[in-house]
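Researcher: Re-running this chain for the archive, since the previous output was lost when a drive failed. Same request as before.
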Amino acid sequence: MKKIQRNTLQQAIAESKVAFRYVFLFSFAANILILGLPIYTLQVLDRVVSSGSMETLTMLTILMIFIFTMLGAFTAVRSFVLIRMGKWLDKKLTVSLAEKALASAASKPGSSGSQVVRDVISIKQFLTGQAMIAAFDAPWAVVFLIVLFMIHPLTGTVALAGVVILVAITWLNERTVRVNLAKANEDSVQSLNQLEMFARNAEVVEALGMRQDIIGRWSDGNDEVVRLQAVASQREAIISAIAKAFRMILQILIVAVGAWLVLQNQLTIGSIIAGSILVGRVLAPFEMAIGAWGQVAGMRVSYDRLNKFINEEPDRDQAMSLPEPEGLLSVERVMYAIPGTGVAFIKGITLQMPIGQSLGIIGPSASGKSTLAKLIMGIYKPNTGNVRLDSADVYTWNRKDFGRHVGYLPQDVELFAGTVRDNIARMRPDATDEDVVAAAKITGAHEFILRLPNGYETDIGVGGAKLSGGQRQRIGLARAFFGNPKLVVLDEPNSNLDEVGENALMVALANAKEKKITTIVIAHRPAVLNFVDKVLVMRDGSAIDLGDPQDIMKKYSQQSQNAAAQAAVKKAGGKPAIKG
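Model: Regenerated structure tokens:
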């Protein structure tokens, strides 16, 4: 029989069963000890009161104090086991799933990695909360029910009928609440993701006066979430109130039935009180489950969503650690289609770059330049073809190992909360001051960093909020050249640079050539192209030309002039302009 392969989440839950076994044992001990209370009550009312024996009362009381001390200890240990299990589960899942979420966000822009962590928290809270304790207490309700039958068949029958009705109420609660809570949960995720997106674009929102309009649009969706949550909560509150009232009524019925049996000389006074206590214990887990059903429903949605995420986002193949590359880059008949569309965005590009050569990539917007850069960096996986660095596939190369040999500056420069040094050093704890300064000097950023309030130790805020766009770009450029990379890809590195910053970029490209770093520069400004060996021209996802910078610029400059002349003739009604 073929063994079913579990994913990360399923494996972690399966390994948690060891903790559940201990919780089961402590639940067994705690529930057995609970039987001491009705037995104590029965003995005191039926024997001590009638005999007047203070010695018996004292001994029974001392014994019960010891029993309930042990009960408290077992209950506490059970909770501690669940808490420790929750911490273990968090450590087991959160880091690996957060890494997976970041990898997914890189290949699927717009996705939220924080939702994965929220789902893990939801599952952990369920496994360590009251709903799980109720689940472990529920089987022992059968034991209490058997004791009720032992007291008298009629009291057991009344209690059994109550259990059946309470189970029916629990089922009704699940049917009533589930759909609304599931829909509210999904809509809430989308609402939070939308709010995160608005926060990332807060400057545009404020500058263009869009705040009220976008919050109004977000509020419409959020109102629906609140409505669904309110409907589910109201229904759950009604059903919980019914369940609580029913439990109280059932306890009264048990007392009434017990009193009737006493009048019939079939039961003792102590049995009435004992029966009332026992029926409360029989019904308590079911009532607790109804009260915690919202947590159960939320956990189930989170579990299904995590399962779907893990199964749809398989871990990328990671090759063994490879020797340090020299910088030979080859793009072999690469084709890439946007996931879910089937539309080819990169169409069969082939490219060879010798060690230390530099390449400029130009082309109109949406021609595929940035997508090609991400394929070269192993962020995207080609549908067909391969991108290789020294003959090794960049996508399957161990990411941490690969990252030590390459540098990358994306079109939208993102920095991280911390210091200038932290960002240049790529947050690596083993980075040396010498390597950080060397990267800054290669890119001409050293002098401007020293002029910051605390130099390299300047806190730049979340996303580099305390820096200008040009400063962020220059620090991002230094980060790309950190650690002696063999391949560097720069996507529009001068888009936010002033003249001083652009001169520093030229120095960085010259240093890269001197150090034999294979360099790819995507640029619109022609000044950068004067420092590269070759220029690749892209259009509609295809490579349409490759050659020396001067030849390419001359050729396409002439084409631009011809296109402008034709546009002028067309505007003039098809007649050539008259000179003189």
